[in-house]
Write a structure and sequence with these properties.
four-stranded mixed β-sheet, 11 strands, seven-stranded parallel β-sheet, about 15% strand, 2 domains, Rossmann fold, about 40% helix, Dihydrodipicolinate Reductase, domain 2
Length: about 450
């Protein structure tokens, strides 16, 4: 294909749902530090990653940010919504992810950032209480208030583009119902306050109505419903999700392909997590945990394909647990016990203990999705962006498309898409044809 990329001009607005949370404030402080020259964007492919062009022998490996026309960090303008009325410096101090010495380097910038009132309903996030929230008689009215926020944000900052990233909490488990089937049924449902329409869906709808891409960093149902996907295609807007792939699931998308590649069998995989931030508190509620569990459980089966390898993966016991443990705060521990077997069925074990930092891993993903999501819009892509599956635990996919969970295949797919966008040849890793016989 031959593509024409609209160059980034002016300012890019970045709207964060859950602006005062640990992920958002870590992203904001880090991005401000990087553009001020007092920090490194470690973990960000768009800022630190390279991309190979041509044959390996050509030794042509430019940085992605030098190859693809992305917005410069100095041209990002930040805003968003939250259920607490604090500036981003105060919120970052409460989150306790970054140390004071790092926050103080960008204190003045963070203090200028304050969220809009949020759309909030405790029914969908039982463990939180909202004190800085919008009110209206209908969900349609709340959605219109979000649209007005977006329009004002665009006008007040003279923005060329905007993108929204959901960095908020995990909502209680919902299944798609008839109200989600069409644009018309969803709009009628908002007017009638249908219980299957959650706050995250209202944000997504408002964004798509305002020509703003919406990317889902939580396992919420939001972008999986037909009505939202129809609206994204109708209005020509990119969407992507769901659930940032950070700690334990990132490890799974590396280890599971290793087992499958070597044709090693698997009896069971037990995963447990302890964390103490607001995310951990929210996930202590069974309804929110169910939403997260569905996202985390889908990885193993998709990679191992038990229907193709019943002798190896036809009877795998997979269990996931998340435990709220306040002393850990944002420093999550993911522990995995893997019972596998090899030649002649002899058993082996693999144990992984990942003492990670949840928001430190998520922040660079937010930055990449901001820049690549906006790139999608400038290229003219619309609907679900499967090529960005690399960033998500439970990658969204169009009907008839099988989701890819293998981290390295996802990486190849993403880089090949960037090559296609820039009218370069995709890389197959077959540099030259090998002549076996003459």
């Amino acid at each position: 294909m031959h593509t024409t990329v609209k160059k980034p001009e002016g300012k890019l607005g970045v709207l964060l749902v859950g602006m005062s949370g640990a992920v958002s404030t870590t992203f904001l402080a880090g991005t401000l530090a990087v553009r001020k020259g007092v920090g490194l964007p470690i973990g960000s492919l768009t800022q630190m990653g390279t991309i190979r062009l041509g044959k390996r022998a050509d030794n042509n490996f430019p940085k992605i940010k030098d190859f693809v026309p992305l917005y410069d960090l100095k041209n990002l303008i930040f805003g968003g919504w939250d259920i607490r009325d604090e500036n981003s410096y105060e919120s970052a101090k409460i989150a306790e992810v970054l140390k004071d010495k790092d926050l103080d380097l960008v204190k003045d910038e963070l203090e200028q950032l304050r969220p809009f009132k949020a759309v909030f309903d405790k029914k969908y996030v039982a463990r939180l209480d909202g004190t800085y929230v919008k009110s209206d008689t209908t969900k349609a009215g709340l959605m219109e208030q979000v649209r007005e926020d977006i329009r004002n944000f665009r006008k007040d900052n003279n923005l060329a583009d905007i993108i929204t990233i959901w960095c908020g909490s995990t909502e209680t488990y919902l299944k798609a119902s008839e109200v989600h089937d069409t644009i018309e049924s969803f709009e009628e449902g908002m007017k009638n306050n249908h219980p299957d329409i959650s706050p995250s869906m209202l944000y997504a709808w408002a964004c798509l109505m305002e020509n703003v891409p919406y990317f889902n960093g939580a396992p919420n149902l939001t972008l999986d419903i037909k009505a939202v996907q129809q609206l994204a295609l109708k209005n020509g807007i990119p969407i992507a999700g769901k659930d940032f792939k950070t700690g334990q699931t990132m490890v799974k998308t590396v280890i599971a392909p290793m087992l499958k590649t070597r044709m090693l069998g698997l009896d069971g995989w037990f995963s447990t997590n302890i964390l103490g931030n607001r995310d951990g508190e929210v996930l202590d509620d069974p309804g929110s945990f169910k939403t997260k569990e569905e996202s985390k459980l889908s990885v193993i089966d998709s990679i191992l394909q038990p229907e193709l390898y019943p002798e190896l993966y036809g009877n795998v016991y997979h269990k996931v647990r998340i435990n709220y443990y306040p002393p850990r705060k944002d420093n999550k521990e993911g522990w995995d016990n893997i019972d596998l077997f090899g030649w002649l069925g002899y058993p082996m074990q693999l144990k992984i203990d990942f003492l990670c930092r949840d928001s430190i891993l998520a922040a660079p993903l937010v930055l990449d999705l901001v820049l690549l999501g906006n790139l999608s819009q400038r290229v003219g892509f619309s609907g679900i962006q499967e090529w960005l599956s690399f960033y998500f635990k439970s990658p969204q996919h169009s009907e008839g498309i099988v989701p890819e969970h293998d981290l390295f295949i996802q990486n190849i797919k993403m880089k090949n898409t960037l090559r296609e966008i820039m009218n370069e040849e995709p890389i197959t890793h077959l540099d030259d044809k090998i002549t076996l016989f003459k």
